[in-house]
Amino acid sequence: MGIPISRNLLEKIFSRDKPGDAFKYIVTLTKELKDSGRTPIIVLDELQKIKDIKINGYLLYELFNLFISLTKENHSAHVFAITSDSLFIEKVFRETKLYGRARYFLVDDFDYKTTEGFLRKHGFSSEEIELTRKYFGGKPVFLIEAINNRENLKEFCESQLSLRKRQIKEIIKERDFKILREFKDKEEIIIEELDEEIENLVENNVLFFDPVRGVLKPQSRLDLLAIREIVS
Questions:
Q1: What are the backbone dihedrals phi and psi of residue 69, each rounded to the nearest 5 degrees, phi first?
Q2: Total structural domains in the chain?
Q3: Is residue 232 within 8 Å of 113, Cβ to Cβ?
Q4: Most-buried pick from 14, 43, 149, 162 (CB within 10 A)?
Q5: Has residue 100 been placed in a domain?
Q6: For the segment 166-208, what is each residue's pLDDT rounded down to a tens digit?
């Protein structure tokens, strides 16, 4: 369910070059819901899409000030801000001073037990499970594709690795990304700071950066295998 709002109020809000009216409406609405015994939960997905929008300053910062007001000051709502952009998360935590005001939840791949149980429910044998995990780890989207291609599973796995290798080579072209060599015998590394090379690979979904742990790793098991074949 979304936030109910009349057409007249919506037109009034967006006829002005400031988000204040919309924010005031949300504050009032959440307070009314809280007073009635219901605590609203606000979910905003892919917030990085608005990171460069300016309305009397960056809209993103105004939004997070609103979130802090709703959750930490008024206690009138729970807010979940979701993004697949790990660089964006790092930037938000650093520039909006969220430390101590927000919690970071990593929605990661399935662990071994969950992956095994999921594939067994779809009739996979132990050999098929190990083959799937070798190439795809516990990434749900690839597990579903493996299920859909079970009849020619080995060929499917090999074709996906070949495709990912070509994609990564196209991203790095002739440049020497030294950081990729670190994954020749490691699955993840700890870094002190982000440089242009790392940011490029993260933005292109080759690597993933965990801003809380300071850990850098390939986006998926498939990426790890592709990187190792490229740098070997």
A1: -65, -45
A2: 2
A3: no
A4: 149
A5: no
A6: 999 999 987 878 899 999 999 999 998 889 899 999 989 999 9
